[in-house]
């Protein structure tokens, strides 16, 4: 193999598994260390710079970082990254003074359609540069999906208000209760660019299922129902509730039902339990609240007696996979199953809909109903001054993805308004600094602790079910947070190898607790992977290969289960290994928001 | 400096015949200087015991005094151990071997502990052919007292302070061959591919097995002018690679004839010597001495298996000791009482 090019920031970026997996590339190990040092405000600001809504995400994020966490590969459970983020938000000081202000007006005017995470991120990134920002949303407050579809027992309203407020306070001209029904009318107002972050608001229905029309009074589209609960239009539901669907929205629907009078709430899903789209922890939370999840049942009909819904019939199926891994749900041939109910919540996904975007605008759509977008870097539509982001770009995803879209779209809008080429993206902000404090001393707690992951404490179940606003999770206290933060392996403390000084004494190979380092003859990657001290079978993880050393061998480090404990560097007599902190922040329209704020 | 080794290990560490991973043969974290050759030897011993699937509790580590003799703390944390008086490890090893002949004994010593203060004991240990593996971590200096020349420092080698050594060094390998050792090898701490099979063969050998290992002192003897630095040793290395195949395993690799010689040990294990020309004989004591001397004259460091007598008689056999270990014999067997004494005396009248 060729020597690894560590001057390409993407190499070390990939080593920090959590940060790499995060769509917004939040510098996770950095803020976790700050939490351990009780520097909650600094931890919060690092988060805020990267993901705009740390308090919201610390409670609701889909956490792609956690399945990626290296700790999950060397031990069982990943670091509790998401809930540590909440710790930073819970314990921070007043951060208002640290927030950047709107910049000197630059004469450019941008319209933002929708007030959700994507639009707010675009606003946050563009405001310090002096853009005039007009935000339109049909709801009476900002936050979009975060406000209407996440129950407040998971996300208290004041947390959302605070973080939406930080963005709006940067001089954003917000027009709430304003439904934009024509893109053309916006374009006619001579905006320099338009960002569409209107989400994917329409929940999918089962219009053709027998009985659908007759039972309409007791059948609700999950996502609309959640939003009407949030706005207190809906305050109760029948005793027996069926929730159709297996995603996180279904989980929110069933748990909310429990709080609005639902006593026998069942989730009924077509697919096998393992294939359900809901995150494992969301399923656990539902089961914990006494909600059975019945899988492999396909809705057949709504049963109506005397004009009233009395139950539903389901076909029992089993999943059959063909050679290509394609799943088919095949009826088992058994009698259809009848389940009694008073109400049904349909939470089987969402559809994109842009009835307000006229053909004449030149914005074109795919056959799936999503806008045709240049690529997932620029977010530019077929009408060059119109940009999309969040769920409106590629269909339903999650908050952190919407934030990431916002960052990229803001960069594009800024380039576009300056008349620059959108494909010439600014580079990420990267630093790489030695962490050496003494001959054998590092600036971070290098030796991993053995503590196990602990669950976040919850309020008493009885109390929780009595209220729909009482937050269920109590969050970690400072002591628990410290222990959980110390579980982080500091993967951003990179093992940097300098072959010029290596004397091939084998000290690093001998000391490495997880046998990551081998000195072997070079070869092709597959061959090399097989010849290491422990064969490197996890091909998602890179090999770090040095140039040829004096004996003709090369140093090969398998990044897979490196603990970043620094023992290789401590045992190296010539400092050919060094532990260097790698800081990576994805490119944003305002290059350094926090410095900007400090000045 | 870290004095704690993380408890996490690679989740896919291979296991040996006993189901142990190499981590089960680990010791405490080393307190030797970073990059010390001795740590590589520790790792080679650990790997050799793992590869040969010797149960850790059936091994005893014995050492004297010095950097080298601290080593046993850093490997085989679940084995027996005795850190003896300076240069007196051979006495302890001899006693232990007589007390329990069923353990695998690994003696670790240094150039000072063996070639200076311990020389008297060392030669007698060879003479008695105690069944053990004796490893000298040879760095040519007294690292623990800041790098003075040791008895094995080569003539003309320059110490870190600039002084040139005016004495010829003691060559422990030649001495062991001359004194009648039944297994003599030399290796280099930076060549685990050779050192590990040598240690495995030495442990399988029934009798005294000696391995002189050049092990650079990274703090006091790794500069230009030193003859035992990493770079100097590598430049002059004349290594004979080898493989060790224990008795229970079948020989899988095919070697070309003429480039490989096989030596079968007492227990049926086989040592494959590579790059050996047909005239090379491991059972030729005079030839071994000549080869070492010739290499020395030519400025080469000859490493590999120098001499082996697979059918030697060890101490327990030579003095016709009971076949069961002494520590397993009961009081009545060890001290049969006055009646038996009387009958012996009677028989002599």
UniProtKB/TrEMBL annotation, chain A:
Enzyme Commission no: 1.3.1.1
InterPro entries tied to this protein: 4Fe4S_Fe-S-bd, 4Fe4S_Fe_S_CS, DPD_II, FAD/NAD-bd_sf, FAD/NAD-binding_dom, Helical_ferredxn
Alphabetical UniProt keywords: Flavoprotein, FMN, Iron, Iron-sulfur, Metal-binding, Oxidoreductase
One example GO MF annotation: iron-sulfur cluster binding
4Fe-4S ferredoxin-type domain location: 493-522, 552-582
Coiled-coil annotated spans: none
Cofactors required: FMN
Keyword Zinc-finger: no
Entries under Pfam families matching the protein: Fer4_20, Fer4_7, Pyr_redox_2
Reactions the enzyme catalyzes: 5,6-dihydrothymine + NAD(+) = thymine + NADH + H(+); 5,6-dihydrouracil + NAD(+) = uracil + NADH + H(+)
Record's signal peptide: none
Enzyme class label: oxidoreductase
Biological role stated in the UniProt entry: Involved in pyrimidine base degradation. Catalyzes physiologically the reduction of uracil to 5,6-dihydrouracil (DHU) by using NADH as a specific cosubstrate. It also catalyzes the reverse reaction and the reduction of thymine to 5,6-dihydrothymine (DHT).
Subunit organization: Heterotetramer of 2 PreA and 2 PreT subunits.
Name assigned to this protein: dihydrouracil dehydrogenase (NAD(+))
Source species of the chain: Shimia abyssi
From TrEMBL, chain B:
Alphabetical UniProt keywords: Oxidoreductase
Domain Thiamine pyrophosphate enzyme TPP-binding: 65-213
CDD domains noted in UniProt: TPP_OGFOR (cd03375)
Transmembrane regions listed in the UniProt entry: none
Domain of life from the UniProt record: Bacteria
InterPro entries in UniProt: 2-oxoacid:Fd_oxidoreductase, THDP-binding, TPP_enzyme_TPP-bd
Biological processes annotated in GO: cellular respiration; small molecule metabolic process
Classification via Pfam families: TPP_enzyme_C
Name the record gives this protein: 2-oxoglutarate ferredoxin oxidoreductase subunit beta
């Amino acid at each position: 193999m060729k020597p690894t090019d560590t001057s390409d920031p993407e190499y070390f970026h990939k080593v920090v598994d959590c940060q790499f997996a995060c769509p917004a590339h939040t510098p996770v190990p950095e803020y976790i260390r700050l939490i351990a040092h009780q520097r909650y405000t600094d931890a919060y600001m690092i988060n805020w710079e990267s993901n705009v809504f740390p308090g919201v995400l610390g409670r609701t994020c889909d956490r792609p970082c956690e399945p990626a966490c290296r700790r999950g590969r060397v031990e069982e459970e990943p670091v509790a990254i998401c809930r540590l983020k909440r710790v930073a938000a819970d314990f921070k000081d007043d951060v208002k003074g640290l927030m950047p202000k709107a910049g000197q007006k630059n004469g450019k005017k941008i319209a933002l359609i929708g007030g959700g995470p994507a639009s707010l991120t675009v606003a946050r990134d563009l405001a310090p540069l002096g853009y005039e920002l007009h935000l339109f949303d049909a709801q009476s407050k900002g936050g979009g999906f975060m406000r209407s579809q996440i129950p407040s027992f998971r996300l208290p309203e004041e947390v959302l208000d605070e973080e939406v407020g930080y963005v709006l306070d940067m001089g954003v001209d917000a027009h709430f209760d304003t439904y934009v029904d024509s893109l053309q009318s916006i374009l006619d107002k001579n905006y320099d660019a338009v960002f569409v972050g209107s989400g994917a608001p329409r929940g999918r229905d089962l219009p053709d299922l027998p009985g659908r029309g007759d039972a309409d009074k007791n059948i609700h589209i999950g996502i609309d129902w959640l939003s009407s609960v949030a706005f207190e239009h809906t305050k109760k539901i029948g005793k027996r509730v069926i929730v159709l669907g297996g995603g996180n929205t279904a989980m929110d629907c069933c748990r909310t039902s429990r709080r609005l009078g639902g006593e026998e709430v069942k989730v009924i899903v077509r697919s096998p339990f393992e294939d359900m789209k809901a995150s494992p922890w969301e399923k656990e939370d539902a089961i914990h609240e006494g909600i059975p999840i019945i899988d492999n049942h396909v809705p057949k009909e709504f049963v109506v007696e005397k004009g009233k819904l009395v139950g539903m019939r389901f076909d029992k199926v089993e999943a059959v996979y063909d050679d290509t891994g394609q799943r088919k749900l095949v009826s088992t041939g058994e009698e259809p199953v009848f389940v009694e109910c008073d109400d049904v919540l349909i939470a089987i996904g969402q559809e994109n809909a842009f009835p307000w975007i006229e053909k004449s605008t030149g914005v074109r759509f795919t056959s799936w109903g999503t806008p045709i977008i240049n690529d997932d870097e620029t977010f530019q539509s077929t009408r060059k001054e119109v940009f999309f982001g969040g769920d409106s770009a590629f269909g339903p995803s999650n908050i952190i993805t919407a934030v990431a879209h916002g960052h990229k779209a803001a960069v594009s809008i800024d380039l576009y308004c300056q008349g620059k080429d959108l494909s010439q993206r600014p580079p990420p902000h990267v630093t790489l600094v030695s962490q050496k404090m003494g001959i054998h001393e590092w600036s971070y707690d290098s030796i991993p602790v053995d503590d196990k992951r602990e669950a976040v404490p919850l309020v008493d179940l009885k109390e929780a079910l009595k209220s729909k606003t009482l937050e269920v999770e109590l969050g970690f206290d400072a002591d628990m947070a410290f222990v959980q933060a110390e579980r982080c392996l500091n993967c951003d403390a990179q093992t940097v190898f300098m072959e010029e000084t290596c004397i091939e004494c084998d000290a690093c190979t001998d000391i490495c607790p997880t046998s990551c380092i081998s000195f072997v003859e070079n070869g092709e990657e597959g061959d090399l992977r097989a010849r290491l001290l422990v064969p490197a079978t996890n091909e998602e993880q890179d090999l770090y290969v040095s140039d040829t050393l004096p004996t003709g061998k090369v140093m090969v480090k398998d990044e897979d289960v490196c603990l970043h404990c620094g023992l290789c560097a401590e045992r190296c007599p010539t400092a050919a290994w060094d532990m260097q902190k790698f800081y990576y922040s994805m490119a944003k329209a305002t290059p350094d928001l926090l410095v900007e704020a400090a000045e | 400096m870290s004095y704690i080794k993380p408890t996490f290990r690679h989740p896919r560490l291979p296991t040996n015949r006993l189901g142990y991973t190499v981590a089960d043969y680990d010791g405490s974290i080393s307190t030797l200087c970073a990059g010390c050759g001795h740590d590589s030897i520790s790792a080679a011993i650990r790997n050799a015991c793992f590869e040969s699937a010797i149960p850790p509790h059936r091994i005893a580590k014995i050492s004297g005094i010095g950097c080298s003799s601290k080593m046993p703390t850093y490997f085989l944390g679940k084995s027996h151990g005795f850190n003896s008086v300076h240069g007196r490890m051979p006495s302890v090893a001899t006693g232990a071997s007589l007390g329990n002949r069923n353990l695998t004994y690994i003696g670790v010593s240094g150039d000072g502990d063996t070639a200076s203060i311990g020389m008297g004991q060392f030669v007698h240990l060879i003479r008695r052919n105690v069944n053990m593996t004796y490893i000298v971590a040879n760095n040519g200096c007294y690292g623990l007292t800041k790098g003075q020349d040791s008895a094995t420092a080569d003539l003309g080698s320059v110490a870190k302070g600039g002084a040139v050594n005016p004495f010829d060094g003691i060559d422990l390998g030649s001495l062991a061959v001359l004194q009648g050792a039944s297994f003599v090898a030399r290796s280099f701490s930076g060549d685990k591919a050779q050192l590990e099979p040598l240690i495995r063969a030495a442990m399988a050998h029934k009798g005294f097995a000696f391995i002189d290992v050049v092990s650079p002192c990274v703090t006091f003897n790794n500069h230009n002018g030193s003859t035992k630095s990493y770079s100097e040793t590598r430049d002059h290395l004349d290594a004979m690679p080898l493989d060790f195949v224990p008795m229970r395993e079948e020989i899988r690799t095919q070697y070309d004839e003429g480039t490989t010689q096989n030596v079968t040990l007492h227990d049926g294990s086989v040592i494959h010597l590579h790059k050996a020309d047909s005239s090379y004989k491991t059972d030729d004591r005079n030839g071994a001495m000549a080869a070492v001397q010739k290499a020395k004259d030519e400025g080469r460091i000859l490493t590999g298996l120098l001499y082996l007598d697979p059918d030697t008689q060890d101490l327990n056999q030579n003095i016709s000791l009971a076949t069961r270990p002494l520590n397993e014999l009961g009081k009545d067997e060890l001290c049969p009482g006055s009646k038996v004494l009387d009958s012996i005396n009677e028989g002599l009248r």
